[in-house]
C-alpha cells in the first residue's frame, strides 16, 4: 500500500469520499444521492481512483458493489483519514464558535463550595450565553451515564477512558491554631502527636491512622482527641477554635493559614495521601467550547489562588 502522503499527491478528496460513499451504500446510485452527484460522476471518480492506484478496489455486479481484498484494506485507511479530517474541521469550527448552551458540572462538596462556587458569578457574567447546572456531591459521578459535561475530581484518577486536565496538586498537612500551640506546645516529631489532641477525618484513606512522610522517611501514628467527623469543614472550624491538631489538604487550610488562624505543625512532614485536582470530561476528540472555556477559567483562577 502506498504511503498516505504520496497518495494525497495523486488523488483528490472528492475521489476518496466518493469511494467511501459507494462502499457504505453498496451502490453507485445510492452513493450518488449521498454525495449529491450524478451516478456517472460517481462511477468516473471511483474509476479514476483505481487508475491512480493501479489496483481494483471494487467488484461490480448488476445488483451489488463489493470490496476486493485490497479494497477492504484501503477502505479502512481512507475511512480513518476522512474521520480525522472531519474531526479537525469540527475542532477548528468549534474553537472559533462563541461558547453557549447548558453546561452541566459535577463538583465535590467542600472543594466546590470553597473554590468553584465563588467563581461561578464571574463566569456567567462573562459568558451570558452559557447556563450552568452545578451539582455538589461527595460521590463518584459517572460523567457519561449521568450526562455531565465536566466533573472536578480530587486525588488519583482511576478512569483512563476520560479526558482529564490537571488543574492543581495538593498535599495533606498538619495544622493547629496559634492558641493551641501556646497552650500545649508543638510536637517536634510525629511520635509526639500521641500526646496531643488530634481531630480525625474519617474519610482519610489510612484512618484510623495518620501516615506521615518526610523525604524517604515514613511514620504511622494513631491520633486520638476530642472530635472525629466525616466532614472536613467541621474539623477545620474546630482546629481554628483551638480544639486540636488537624491533618487536612492545603487547599482547605490555605485561607486560614494566610489569615493567621492556623499554623503548620511538624512542617517537614506531610500526609502520605496527596494527589491532583482534575477536570474530567467525557471521552472523545473534541471538547466543546463551553466546556473548554469553563475549564480554562477555573484553572487560571485556582492556580492564582494557590499562589497567594
Key phrases:
single chain; 308 residues; alpha/beta; Arc Repressor Mutant, subunit A; D-Maltodextrin-Binding Protein, domain 2; 9-stranded mixed β-sheet; 3-stranded antiparallel β-sheet; 11 helices; transcription regulation; LysR_subst-bd; transcription; WH_DNA-bd_sf
Q: What does this entry look like structurally?
A:
The chain has 308 residues and is α/β, with parallel strands linked by helices. The strands form three sheets. Strands 3, 4, 5, 6, 7, 10, 11, 12 and 14 form a nine-stranded mixed beta sheet that branches. A three-stranded antiparallel beta sheet has the order 9-8-13, with no helix packed on it. The radius of gyration is 30 Å and the shape is elongated. It has eleven helices and 14 strands. It has three domains: 4-96, Winged helix-like DNA-binding domain superfamily/Winged helix DNA-binding domain (Arc Repressor Mutant, subunit A, Orthogonal Bundle); 101-169 and 275-307, Periplasmic binding protein-like II (D-Maltodextrin-Binding Protein, domain 2), CATH 3.40.190.10; 171-273, D-Maltodextrin-Binding Protein, domain 2 (3-Layer(aba) Sandwich), CATH 3.40.190.290.
Amino acid at each position: 500500500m502506498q504511503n498516505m502522503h504520496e497518495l494525497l499527491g495523486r488523488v483528490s478528496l472528492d475521489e476518496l469520499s466518493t469511494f467511501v460513499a459507494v462502499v457504505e451504500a453498496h451502490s453507485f446510485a445510492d452513493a450518488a444521492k449521498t454525495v449529491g452527484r450524478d451516478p456517472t460522476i460517481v462511477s468516473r471518480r471511483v474509476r479514476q481512483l483505481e487508475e491512480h492506484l493501479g489496483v481494483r478496489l471494487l467488484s461490480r455486479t448488476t445488483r451489488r458493489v463489493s470490496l476486493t481484498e485490497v479494497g477492504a484494506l484501503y477502505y479502512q485507511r481512507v475511512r480513518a483519514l476522512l474521520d480525522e479530517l472531519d474531526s479537525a474541521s469540527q475542532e477548528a469550527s468549534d474553537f472559533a464558535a462563541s461558547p453557549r448552551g447548558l453546561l452541566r458540572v459535577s463538583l465535590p462538596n467542600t472543594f466546590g463550595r470553597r473554590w468553584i462556587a465563588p467563581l461561578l458569578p464571574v463566569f456567567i457574567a462573562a459568558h451570558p450565553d452559557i447556563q450552568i447546572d452545578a451539582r455538589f456531591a461527595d460521590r463518584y459521578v459517572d460523567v457519561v451515564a449521568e450526562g455531565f459535561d465536566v466533573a472536578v475530581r480530587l486525588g488519583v484518577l482511576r478512569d483512563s477512558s476520560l479526558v482529564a486536565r490537571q488543574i492543581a496538586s495538593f498535599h495533606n498537612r498538619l495544622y493547629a491554631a496559634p492558641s493551641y500551640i501556646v497552650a500545649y506546645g508543638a510536637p517536634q516529631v510525629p511520635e509526639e502527636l500521641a500526646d496531643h489532641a488530634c481531630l480525625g477525618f474519617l474519610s482519610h484513606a489510612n484512618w484510623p491512622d495518620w501516615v506521615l512522610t518526610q523525604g524517604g522517611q515514613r511514620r504511622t501514628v494513631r491520633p486520638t482527641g476530642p472530635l472525629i467527623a466525616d466532614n472536613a469543614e467541621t474539623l477545620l472550624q474546630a482546629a481554628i477554635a483551638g480544639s486540636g491538631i488537624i491533618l487536612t489538604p492545603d487547599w482547605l487550610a490555605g485561607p486560614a493559614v494566610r489569615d493567621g488562624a492556623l499554623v503548620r505543625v511538624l512542617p517537614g512532614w506531610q500526609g502520605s495521601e496527596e494527589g491532583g485536582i482534575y477536570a474530567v470530561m467525557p471521552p472523545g476528540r473534541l471538547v466543546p467550547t463551553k466546556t473548554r472555556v469553563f475549564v480554562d477559567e477555573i484553572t487560571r483562577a485556582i492556580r492564582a489562588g494557590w499562589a497567594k
